[in-house]
Amino acid sequence: MQKPKTDLNIEYEELMKKYDLPSYNEINYEFEISTLDIKKINSLSRGILRAMTNKMALFLNYVEPVISPNPQGLHAFIEVQNTSNDEKKEAFDFYKKISKMYHKAYSMELLEDEKTVIEEIKNILKDWRKIKTEFKKLSEIINSSWEREAKKEEIETIG
Length: 159
Description:
Helix content is 77%, strand content 0%. By secondary structure, it is mainly α. The chain has one domain (42-158). Helix 3 packs parallel to helix 6 and helix 4 packs across helix 6.
C-alpha cells in the first residue's frame, strides 16, 4: 500500500518536473528531506539545499578530529595516534573538497533565485555518489584506528 502524498511530495514533484531532478525517494534517501516542514520554510529548493549542507556538515565533523584534533580531547588523540600520515592526508583532501562544496552551497542557500539554487543542488548530486564512497572509506579508516588502539591495549595488558 502506497503512502498518501504529502504537500512536500507534491511540491517536490513540481520542482522535479520543472528542473529534471531525481525522484523524491532518491533525494529523500540521501538527504532526509521528508523532515522539512513545508509550512515553515519559504522555499523548498533552499530547504533541500540546507538539508544537503547539513549532511556535508556531518561528514566534516566526523573527519575533522583526525586532521585537526582538539589537544585536550582523548577521542581525537586516539584517532590521530592510530592513523597513518597517508590516511590523514586522504582525510584532509576530502575535508577540503567537502568544505569548498559546503561553503558554496551555504552561500547559495541565501539566494532568492530558485533556478540558481536548483543548479547548486544538481552540482552536489552529480558528485554525491563519489563523495559517499570517499566518506565510507574514511569512516573505515577511522574505525580501524579504534581497532588498532584496542590491539595495542591487548598487547600492553598481556606484555
